[in-house]
Each structure stands twice: as C-alpha cells, then as structure tokens.
C-alpha cells in the first residue's frame, strides 16, 4: 500500500439510515416507492468519486459494492464467497490462483463479463499514467505489478493472464492468505474497456450513464452532493436472491435531522449522536456495531510548527482518548492508543492490538515538556488551525481537541470545517497544519493501515511522513512468509511512526450506536472493506 492517497480514512466511514416510506431521491419516484420494495438510505457525507480506480473513501466504496461485483463477495460472517467467479484453484505453494468465471454473467448492457475485463481493470489501476490511489492493493501482491507501476516493466510482464473468457490466472509475490478477500474489494472489480472508450476516459463514472454495472443494482441517478438512486439489475446473475427493487442514498449530514425522520416513521435505520444514545439505550430498536476504523490526528511535517518532532509529540500527548470515546462520542467507540484497530488479525491466538499493546497514552506533564523544548527550537507558535470534515462526529471531535489543547497546553486552536471531499482535497494538497482523519480497513490485516505511511510517494494525507527504517520494515513485511517475523516487523513499524516520530495522534476506534426497525432483515454491515451489503435485505412487516 505504498500509494494509498486518502485518507482515511479508509479511509473512512459513513452513516446510513434506511427509509421505506416517503419520497425518494428523485421527484419522479415519489409514488412508486410505496408500491415497490425500495430501501431509502442516508449518507452522512457527500460522495467523492465513483471511479473505482481512483476513489479512496468509504462512502464511494460502499456504493460501488452494491452496483459492481468482484470475483468474490464477503458474506455475513465476512468470509469471501464465490461471486463473478464460480470457483478458484490455489496451487500447493499458494502462489498461483486460477479463477473460473460463472456461465452467463453479464454487464448491465448485456455484454458478457470476461476474464479480460478483470485483467484490463487491474492493469488500468496499476498503470503509471493512471495515478490509481489504490494501485498498491494490487501491485503489493501480484508478480510484476510494482515494476509495472513504477514504469520499469511492460504490462505483459505482470502475472495476470486471461487464459480464455472464463479463466483468469494470477501469480502472487508471496503467499497471501487474505487474497480471496481482496478480490471482493472495489479496486479488484472488472471494467469494460469498450464502454470506457465509448464514453471517454475523462467522462467515465461522472454520471449514472457513464458507468457500466455488473452488481446487484444499477444507478439511475447520481449527484455527488445529493446522493444516488439504485434499482435492481435485471442482468445480474443472482437477481433471484435480490429481494428489494431498489434503493436511494441521500446525503444528510446532520444526525439530528436523520433522527427526526426516524421518529416520524420515515426512516428504518439511523445512527445516533452521542447526546441521543442514553435516551434510546433501553429501546428494543437500539444496537451498536464495531468497525475496523481508526480515527487519528494527522500532523503535517511540511507545515510549521509540526515540522518539529517535539511539537508533534506535545500535541500527541495532550488529550485523553478515553474521555473522547466515553463522554463526547458515547456510541460504542473505544479509545485508541495505537493505530491498528481493535479486532484486526494478529496471530492465531491474539489480535494485533493485543500483541502490540498501547503505544502512546496521554501524559500532560510530558506534553508540556515537549512543547517547551519545541518552542526553544522554533521560537513562538504560529496561528494554529485544526482541519476537520463537517459531519457531526468530526465536528464534535474537533471541539473536544480544541478544548484539550487549551486546557493542557495553554494554546488556542482555530477549527477549520470543510465538506468531507474538501477535507480530503485540502489534506492531499498539504494545505493544513493538523487534520482529523480516519482509515477504515479494506481487509483484515494490520498491513492494510500501516502501509499507508510508507512514504513512497510522500502524501499530504499522511502528513508527508517519511522514515527509511519504517519503509524498510513495511517493504520487508510485505515479502516475509514467516507470520511471526512479519508481525514483529509491523509492531516495530507502528512504534516508530507513533512513539519515535510522533507522526499522528491516535483518537479512537469507531463504534456506532443505531436504531433499526425490526421489520428490516438481513442488512449486512462489514467491519472492513466496503461496509454495506444491500443484496440480502428483506422487508417483513
């Protein structure tokens, strides 16, 4: 993951609420939504990008997961199950995967989905001219991919072979036990080269009409600031098991607005703000869920005063994640004292977090010492600004940090609020001092998040952090077949980034409290990857 340009948060995540009554995203769909089984959803932020090669955020990934499909798809237990592929043969050395595609799989225009569509998509994502933000999720594992991405090898040298229309062969750099799960992720979805050539490279995925679909649903409307409208894909191979007729996803950023809609009977599922949790905790409709999502305070190494390690460490130790999780959020989130989220795989006996332990914990006296030392080195502090997105949770977190920095360091910090996509763009451009960010895991392994700070190339989203020792550990871990040695490398890398360099300040691991009507069944929320599965939803009133 040397070239993940995001954010966070995988990147990353978003709120969803589900409506069955009321008006749809389109004014023309008002009456029809009462006749058909239409699920209405709410997103808590705008939709940055539905180009699967370029996108980096959780909202876009979850939409793509419902309009597209890879070789495999995660089930309710987060295990990969055959999807576009009917089966896969894995060689004895676990380095060669041969996928056998199903009969009769089609694009939404009726064209067959072929092995070449997967090869084209994967090479497109890794092509050096594409600037695919998630190219690393392919080239870190596929033989020849890294060299191709660096412009040092031809596409023919990448070990992806379309043997025929229904057979795809892939050779891996090292045994990767989670590879089938990777093929369920958006960057591994197929693309139809003929269609992209027809609509044009620059127009692809900008509107509902400039995407070709192979998943359970197709989009009929798409507006980044407003939302999307989906309807059941008549060409989908498993359409008989899709029990709803469609869905809408409308952008509603304020949780209080969503809750009002839920209480008025228009919503079937809503996430709760911290102030509302206690009022609903005893309700039969109340629940909580946990996610492999790490929220953190990213410092920008290229902006004063955070080009100074002592200043970074001062701010890193000057707030209490426990108070943030328990009092400010109050939604099932857990305090973060490391970067890799709770529950992410470690060895067969313990999770990574259990193995690595706490890396940084608040220490206000030490924070003041670091601040004084940093000021001796740089002089007076400049005006300080904290960048955040404009959703409820991000704003509440920013306000908490502002208060903590004033109380524990005696410094004033202004909060700069931008729409989610604007926050991402500002961080990509390195036009910030410190920013609240998050990463939602794409797959269940600590490498998923730790590789983001590999420093190749420098990324504003990662604070322009670069450390040769860290990079060597990550690069070595990617190729290390011994799992215990690999985990030791990753544990050391996390400590270097956090404790030695003060790269960022861990905030919390995301939990969400929600209300859900009892008649909506079989909604799947994954803790990692694309979070939302609409395919299996049933409505039983």
UniProtKB/TrEMBL annotation:
Zinc-finger keyword on record: no
GO BP: any one term: peptide transport
Topological type in the membrane: Lipid-anchor
Keyword Lipid metabolism found: no
Main localisation: membrane
GO cellular component, one term: periplasmic space
Database matches in PROSITE patterns: PROKAR_LIPOPROTEIN, SBP_BACTERIAL_5
Start and end residues of each Solute-binding protein family domain: 80-455
Subcellular location: Cell membrane
Gene Ontology molecular function: peptide transmembrane transporter activity
Keywords: Peptide transport, Protein transport, Signal, Transport
Similarity-based family: Belongs to the bacterial solute-binding protein 5 family.
Protein name listed in UniProt: Peptide ABC transporter substrate-binding protein
Organism: Lentibacillus populi
Taxonomic lineage: Bacteria, Bacillati, Bacillota, Bacilli, Bacillales
């Amino acid at each position: 993951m040397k070239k993940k340009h995001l954010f966070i948060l995988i990147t990353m995540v978003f709120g969803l609420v589900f409506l069955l009554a009321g008006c749809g995203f389109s004014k023309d769909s008002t009456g029809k939504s009462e006749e058909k089984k239409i699920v209405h959803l709410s997103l808590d932020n705008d939709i940055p990008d539905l180009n699967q090669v370029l996108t980096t955020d959780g909202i876009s990934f979850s939409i793509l997961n419902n309009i597209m499909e890879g070789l495999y798809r995660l089930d309710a237990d987060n295990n990969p199950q055959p999807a576009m592929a009917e089966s896969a043969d894995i060689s004895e050395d676990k380095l060669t995967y041969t996928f056998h595609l199903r009969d009769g799989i089609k694009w939404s225009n009726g064209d067959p989905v072929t092995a070449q569509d997967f090869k084209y998509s994967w090479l497109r994502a890794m092509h050096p001219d594409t600037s695919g933000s998630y190219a690393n999720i392919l080239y870190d594992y596929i033989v020849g991919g890294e060299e191709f991405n660096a412009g040092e090898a031809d596409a023919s040298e990448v070990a992806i072979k379309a043997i025929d229309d229904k057979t795809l062969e892939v050779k891996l750099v090292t045994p990767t036990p989670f590879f089938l799960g990777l093929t369920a992720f958006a960057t591994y979805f197929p693309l139809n080269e003929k269609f992209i050539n027809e609509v044009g490279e620059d127009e692809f995925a900008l509107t509902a009409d400039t995407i070709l679909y192979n998943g359970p649903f197709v989009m009929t409307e798409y507006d980044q600031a407003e939302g999307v409208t989906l309807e059941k894909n008549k060409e989908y191979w498993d359409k008989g098991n899709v029990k709803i007729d469609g869905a809408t996803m409308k952008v509603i950023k304020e949780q209080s607005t969503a809750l009002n809609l839920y209480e008025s009977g228009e919503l079937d599922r809503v996430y709760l703000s911290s102030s509302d949790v206690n009022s609903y905790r005893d309700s039969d409709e109340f629940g909580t869920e946990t996610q492999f999502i790490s929220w953190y305070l990213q410092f920008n190494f290229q902006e004063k005063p955070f080009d100074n390690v002592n200043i970074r460490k001062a701010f890193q130790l000057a707030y209490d994640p426990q108070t943030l999780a328990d009092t400010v959020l109050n939604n099932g989130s857990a305090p973060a004292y490391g970067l890799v989220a709770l529950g992410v795989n470690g060895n067969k006996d313990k999770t990574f977090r259990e193995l690595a332990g706490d890396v940084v914990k608040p220490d206000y006296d030490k924070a003041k010492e670091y601040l004084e030392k940093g000021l001796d080195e740089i002089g007076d502090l400049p005006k300080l600004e904290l960048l955040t997105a404009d959703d409820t949770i991000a704003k509440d977190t920013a306000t908490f940090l502002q208060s903590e920095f004033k109380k524990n360091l005696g410094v004033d910090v202004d909060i700069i609020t931008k729409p989610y996509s604007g926050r991402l763009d500002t961080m990509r451009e390195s036009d910030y001092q410190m920013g609240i960010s998050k990463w939602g895991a794409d797959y269940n392994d600590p490498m998923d998040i730790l590789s983001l700070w590999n420093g190749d190339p420098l990324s504003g989203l990662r604070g322009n952090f670069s450390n040769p020792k860290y990079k060597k550990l990550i690069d070595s871990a990617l190729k290390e077949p011994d799992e215990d040695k690999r985990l030791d490398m990753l544990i050391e890398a996390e400590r270097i980034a956090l404790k030695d360099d003060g790269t960022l300040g861990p905030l919390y691991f995301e939990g969400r409290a929600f209300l859900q009507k009892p008649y909506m069944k079989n909604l799947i929320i994954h803790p990692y990857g694309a979070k939302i599965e609409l395919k299996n939803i049933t409505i039983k009133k």
